[in-house]
Amino acid sequence: MSGPMLHGSITALITPFKDGKVDEDAFQAFVEWQIEEGTNALVSCGTTGESPTLSHDEDMRVTALCVEAAAGRVPVIAGTGSNSTEEAIGLTRHAQSAGADAALVVAPYYNKPTQEGLYQHYKAIHDAAEIPIIVYNIPGRSIVDISVETMARLAALPNLIGVKDATADLTRPVATRLACGAEFRQLSGEDATIVPFLAQGGHGCISVTANVAPRLCAELHAAWQARDLDVVSSINDRLYPLHSALFVESSPGPVKFAASVLELCRNELRLPLVQVRPETEVIVRKAMVHAGLLN
User: Fold this and answer.
1) pLDDT for 46-73, tens place per residue?
2) Domains in the chain, ordered, with CATH?
3) What is the 3-state secondary structure (H, E, C) of the chain?
4) 53-56 LR contacts (CB < 8 Å, sep 24+)
5) How far apart are CA 188 and CA 167, in angstroms?
6) Contacts of 213 (CB under 8 A, 6+ apart)
7) Rounded to two decimals, what is the model's pTM?
8) Active site residue 18
9) Catalytic annotation, pick one of 119, 122, 136, 240
10) Residues 6+ positions from 143 with CB-CB distance below 8 Å
11) Partner of 69 for a Cys bridge, out of 31, 55, 137, 140, CB 3.0 to 4.6 A?
């Protein structure tokens, strides 16, 4: 197994828009702020980045902008998944050529492949590129769940280095660790369960919350690595209402609103996503106050 030893707080970056187009300046400024705040790695063009509504040209441009802004200071993981294996190969090859450190490849959605189909999908992508690959297992959005047994088969591929686990199954990290080995990177896709995920063998979190609370998220992971459980508990208590608030409506609606409150980007999304309702704005603001992000 080769590739970056990813750990800690990894932000699933929003994609700022301005009058319907990608706001390139705001995006690169956002990347700079994330690094200054202590974020350990960055994910471009994931679900939080509204990748389903980015054109292929926009998708590739955003990844290139992220690599350029990060300038080697932290790893960049490019979202390159698709329910078309051929399309995922193309995006993964582009991520490699753009200088990304790894590719995050979501389980094929809508098609409902079998476990053998899932294995062959990832193997084809793996064999077509040389970039490290992280599997993104999110049954709630893709309908299929990559079993631990299939994950172990995938972990045997030399450049398949880990998983973003958004199953919310807190028995999964220990089962995966025993099946795939301790070096197989296990990254949570569920902010609210990060502490027990780490306790069961996880290495970090690809986080929505870190878009607006990057320093707190990074400090939680640093405290975990130092085994300072009092600090972990204190930060977790501050962040938990925000974790929940950011999913009151479809993500990234709430986090885009929160980022706009912090003047990090416009509160602009692409259809079929829309701005959150006023009552959701109240919930998000209250959680931001509780976390200490607002007075």
Assistant:
1) 999 999 999 999 999 999 999 999 999 9
2) 8-226 (3.20.20.70)
3) CCCCCCCEEEEECCCCEECCEECHHHHHHHHHHHHHCCCCEEEECCCCCCHHHCCHHHHHHHHHHHHHHHCCCCCEEEECCCCCHHHHHHHHHHHHHHCCCEEEEECCCCCCCCHHHHHHHHHHHHHHCCCCEEEEECHHHHCCCCCHHHHHHHHCCCCEEEEEECCCCCCHHHHHHHHHCCCCEEEECCHHHHHHHHHCCCCEEEECHHHCCHHHHHHHHHHHHCCCHHHHHHHHHHHHHHHHHCCCCCCCHHHHHHHHHCCCCCCCCCCCCCCCCHHHHHHHHHHHHHHCCCC
4) 53/270, 53/271, 53/273, 54/15, 54/22, 56/90, 56/91
5) 9
6) 239, 242, 291, 293
7) 0.96
8) no
9) 136
10) 109, 110, 112
11) 31
Angle at Cα 8 formed by Cα 242 and Cα 171, nearest 5°?
Answer: 80
Two tokens, residue 249: 């409506």
The tokens for 17 are 């828009």
Q: Hey, what are 253's tokens?
A: 């609606």
| Mean pLDDT in consecutive groups of 10 residues from the start of the chain, 295 residues | 80 98 98 98 97 96 98 98 97 98 97 97 98 97 96 98 97 97 97 97 98 98 98 98 98 98 98 98 98 96
**The residue count for the chain:** 295
Query: Phi, psi (5° rounding) for residue 72?
Result: 80, 0
121, 86 contact by CB (below 8 A): no
Amino acid at 149: E
Q: Is 112 a catalytic residue?
A: no
Catalytic residue among 164, 240, 256, 286: 164
82-103 pLDDT tens trace: 999 999 999 999 999 999 999 9
d(CA 168, CA 91): 27
